Amino acid sequence: MSEAALSRIAHLIKVEDDLVKIPTLRQQFTKEKASIDVNLNTTVQLQIDSIMSNMYKLNKSATSLNDIKTSLNKIDMVYEEAITSVPEYDLIRKVTSLNQFLEQTESLRNDIKEFKNFIERLKKMIQKEWDIVSQDLSYPLDNLLLIHFNLTQARNFQEFLLSPSNKFSDDLQSIIEKILMPIKSAIRLFDELLNEIIISITEAIREGNGAMAFKLVKIIEFENNEDLKVSLKEKLKESLEEGVVDDRIDVVTTNYSQYRGAKRNYMKFFYDKLQESLEENFEKCVEHFSSDRMAVYDNLSWLEDELVFVTETISAYFPPHWDITGFIQNVYYNKLHTFTMDLIKLDPSAEELLRILAYDKHYSKFVGSLQPSGANSGEEIAGKSLIGEDLKKVVLDDYLKVIVSKMDEWNDNLINQETHTFLHRDETPPDIFPYHQIIEDEDANDQTITIEIDGDVFVLPDFKTPLSMLKEQADVAADSGYGSILVGVIENWSRCYIKRVMNYKMIITDEFENYMSIYNNDRFIESASNKMRFFKKSPNKPTYDIDNMTTEELSEISKPGLLEYLTALGNTFEINTDRLQDKFLPGYKGKVHSSYQSRIQDAFDDTVTPSTELNAQVIRSIIDIITNDLYPALSTVFTKEWYDDQKLQADNQPNMAQQVLETIIEYMQDLRGYASYDIYSCTFAILLDSFIASYIRIGFQNVLNGKAKKIDPFATKKFKSFSEAVGRDVTLFYGGLEPLFTRKDSSYLLNSLRAIEFLGDLATCEDPMNFIPQMWENEILGSFYYCSVEYIRGICLCRKDMDKTMVNRLIPILEDIQVSYHSNVQPPPQMTGTLNDFYYN
Fold first, then answer.
1. Is 459 exposed, middle or buried (0-12, 13-18, 19+ CB in 10 A)?
2. What sections of the sequence does the record tag as coiled-coil (predicted)?
3. How sure is the predictor about 770, in pLDDT bands with cuts at 50, 70 and 90?
């Protein structure tokens, strides 16, 4: 039983005496139920009848639709028969077209004949309308729409005649311009009428003349829609293929009363004239108080009343997408802003500045109160300051200047301190910093895994100082509540940071040259016929007699610990860059308005490239130092001593590969103990490229210009097999260096060593003119995508059985193969750059 029935029963039976009414109530309920059943059955039957009626109508409609289709087919048949059976059809069509042309020409003749009189009547109508509206703001502009209609017809006619005029002769163009001359004054009069309406619209609405606003809106909306059609037509023409569009007018079919050839921009006209009117009102107020310009702020009640009236009344007469309220507020804001800025330039007193700030706060709050909650335009305007953020915070700007000055002074002192510490590194060892790192590796199934490493790395003694200073100053700036101050602090800190980076780059350059001036091993690889210097040396650097210098004298030129300090420098900037991007950047971006966030982003981003370049210079210097120590051993590559491996073993002396391996292992084991993983892995990968390229380059030089003999591909004597010697070196290098790599990075080691391994086949293969191109395409380019052809040129010239003529024929073939390979094969995801820029002379 429903709650309504229970409620009714409870209402009827309240006391014990009401129980005697139960039979009567039962009869009453039975009658009501019977009545409800009858009504329900009647309603259901009506619904069923309606459904059946609709079904009948639907069937009838379907039958009628089929009849229509049949009739349309008959019409098509009749049309086809009429065209195919009438021999004169083309003639009739041409006659019809000619008749249309004659009628259109007749209409043009009549309209041209009456055009001048029509324009004169239209000008009188416009002038009469202007005379009335300029005197009576309550006039509802009875003839405005008719005037606009007639003027639109005339302008359409004008544009119709002018559109193809560029294809006419000069005389005909002159005639057309003469015919259309009167319309220019009519357009000017109409624009003046619209201008009068626009500047009077506010007062007219105050007088209750809403018709003026409605008719103005109707005209502007019509013109805007027509301009939109013109724009769409122009875009449609641009989207069609060249040569498809024909700009000529079809004078037979075109209704020139509706033709529009260009946009008329009345929406822009409306906003321009409204802006001029508003600006003129404000200028009158300023002129009135020209003797005391500060008094303007005390007499802007009229402006505020105007904004209230616009928001509460005028906005209702205009379409929402016009945003008439926001536009008027912005015009007055711009005028107030300009006026205030001009006052500020006059260096007002502190009292006057306070008055400006007081009105600025009042105006911002006032405009914000006019907007409904969440209105976009209100939020934008309410958030603006009349004097701009910089001048509003002039005192804070002075404070910023003090901060910047102190920061610059601190940065200069820090640079001096860092320079002294680096140059006198023997006095202060690098600091130790516990560094948590997450790296990627591969398991035994070649699946990617992540490994967390907690270890100590070298950093500069004062590596926390720059970021501590940033945090200290930026936190104070953030607490001020002004984003411009925080941004100013961060931007200046970024400039200081970059200045320190540039100083370190100069220090590294000088210190590397000092180191090489006494430890350079170029002499081991310089041949009598081809002097080469692998490391640049400044011409201004003095030459030292290092053989007769003491250890103390040498240390004065290049202090000990250069490699450790270079590593500490690289670690420092890597760690600081990560902290800046991961912690400082999001933290400070979240404390400012979105308008300042991009500047903070740019300030931090500006430090990334210089830091990256500095670390690249650090890594390059470390690699050059290690490679320099390899030169004494590498100087024997491809020589008799290099071939005769067993003689060295008999004398318990390491061969060339073992000496190189021991040197690299010693350096890299030390580096792994105090460098970050990124610095270590990047250094090792580039070291491999540098060392292997040097191995090959020096070997070529020894053969071509030094003490080694050319390679005999068919040598079978003991210790004379080039391919066996190369294979021996590759095996030693891989076996010794592989433990220093992660499983993932060891693939780079293996691929890099192929540059040496390939030499065995290239130097000893039969029929090299056919074999080498195949190997180049099928093996070498697969391992070294951008391999230099100089690699092949060098090994071929080292062969005893190949001369320059054969090599010069071979190289163009290889270059064509490489071009074709690059066009068909995408670069591998992990590039091995060992032979990218290879050279040997």
1. buried
2. none
3. very high
**149, 153, 159, 160 alpha-carbon torsion, rounded to 10°:** 150
Instruction: Tell me the CATH architecture of domain 636-824.
Output: Orthogonal Bundle (1.10)
Tokens 């008959």 belong to which residue?
Answer: 74
Q: Which of 49-63, 520-534, 648-662, 688-702 has the lowest mean pLDDT?
A: 520-534
- Calpha distance 776→768 (Å, rounded): 11
Are 691 and 664 spatial neighbours (Cβ–Cβ below 8 Å)? yes
Between residues 477 and 339, the one the model is more confident about: 339
Residue 538 vs residue 324, higher pLDDT: 324
Q: What does the DSSP assignment read for 686-748? A: HHHHHHHHHHHHHHHHHHHHSSPPPB-TT--STT--HHHHHHHHHHHHHHHHGGGS-TTTHHH
Amino acid at 829: P
Query: Which amino acid, one-letter code, is at 170?
Result: D
The highest-confidence range among 171-185, 377-391, 615-629, 731-745, by mean pLDDT, is 615-629
Token readout for 178 is 């003469």
CB 731 within 8 A of CB 657: no
Domains 396-621 and 636-824 share a fold: yes
Question: Which residue bears the tokens 């102190």?
Answer: 406
Q: In percent, how much of the chain has pLDDT > 90?
A: 30
Cα(70)–Cα(72) distance, rounded to whole angstroms?
5
pLDDT class for 502, splitting at 50, 70, 90? very high
Structural fold of domain 396-621:
Tetracycline Repressor; domain 2 (1.10.357)
Reduced 3-state DSSP string for 324-363: HHHHHHHHHHHHHHHHHHHHHHCCCCHHHHHHHHHHHHHH
pLDDT of residue 331: 92
- Give the contacts of 218 (CB within 8 A, at least 6 positions apart): 145
Burial-class residue 471 by CB neighbours within 10 Å (0-12, 13-18, 19+).
Answer: middle
Distance of alpha carbon 203 from alpha carbon 619, whole angstroms: 76
Q: Is the pLDDT of residue 498 over 90?
A: yes
Domain ranges of the chain: 3-84, 92-242+250-264, 268-392, 396-621, 636-824
Rounded distance, CA 351 to CA 470, Å?
Answer: 35
